[in-house]
Recover the amino acids of this structure.
């Protein structure tokens, strides 16, 4: 007698693992547009900020003086324009009474037009000075979490500085980057018919964290790079993971687990 085992057909759950890097859905480097000394740092590392919130203040005494100077130029140009207008209006009346000729009328008109142009130029200079002054107040362009703060009060900063003032990361949703081989991408495309269809049919993925645990939220592949990396022969895939508890941090690492 021999032992007998019946061979049956059943499904097997397999999985493929890819190394991955984690970034916020929006990571913004905060850099100053002007040079100057930091007089105020209004945030701390790890603080949640909203779009438009002032993060840093740069010494602005010089730029405030420029605004006052530009405002004075506008006031002067306005006075000159008013005087030129009175002269032109009076010249028109005298011309109608045949007291002055065409030359005097046109001359006063040209002076009036020149005064209007000078006022417009002065107003443009004032707007530019005010905009430059606003650069002293470095605001966050997006909502998110503040990263490291390498510069302290009193430090000299400029737009050419190697390091940014800080980084603001929107981590409400995380983008997880992983790479697949060109062969796998071709197989996916041929099976589904198109890249868009392949991405829409891609199964939900899991994220293994650096400590070996599996992240509680499932992720979904939402896009892929349109260029194959010639050095590695791979294509970058991007999956989105919800991050309601702020457990995932921008710059982290892990592994994407794809079930099959």
């Amino acid at each position: 007698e021999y032992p007998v085992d019946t061979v049956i057909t059943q499904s097997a759950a397999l999985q493929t693992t890819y190394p991955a890097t984690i970034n916020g859905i929006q990571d913004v480097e905060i850099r100053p547009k002007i040079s100057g000394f930091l007089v105020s740092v209004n945030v701390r590392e790890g603080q949640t900020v909203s779009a438009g919130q002032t993060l840093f203040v740069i010494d602005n005494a010089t730029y405030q003086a420029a605004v006052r100077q530009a405002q004075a130029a506008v006031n002067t140009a306005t006075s000159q324009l008013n005087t030129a207008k009175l002269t032109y209006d009076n010249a028109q009346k005298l011309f109608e009474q045949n007291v002055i000729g065409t030359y005097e009328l046109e001359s006063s008109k040209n002076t009036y037009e020149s005064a209007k142009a000078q006022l417009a130029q002065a107003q443009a200079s004032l707007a530019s000075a005010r905009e430059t002054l606003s650069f002293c107040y470095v605001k966050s362009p997006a909502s998110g979490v503040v990263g490291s703060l390498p510069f302290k009060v009193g430090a000299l900063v400029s737009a050419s500085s190697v390091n940014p003032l800080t980084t603001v990361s929107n981590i409400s949703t995380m983008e997880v980057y992983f790479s697949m081989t060109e062969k796998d991408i071709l197989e996916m495309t041929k099976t589904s018919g198109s890249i868009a269809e392949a991405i829409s049919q891609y199964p939900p993925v899991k994220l293994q964290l650096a400590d070996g645990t599996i992240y509680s939220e499932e992720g979904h592949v939402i896009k892929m790079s349109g260029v194959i990396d010639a050095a590695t022969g791979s294509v970058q895939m991007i999956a989105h993971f919800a991050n309601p508890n702020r457990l995932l941090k921008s710059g982290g690492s892990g592994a994407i687990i794809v079930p099959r």
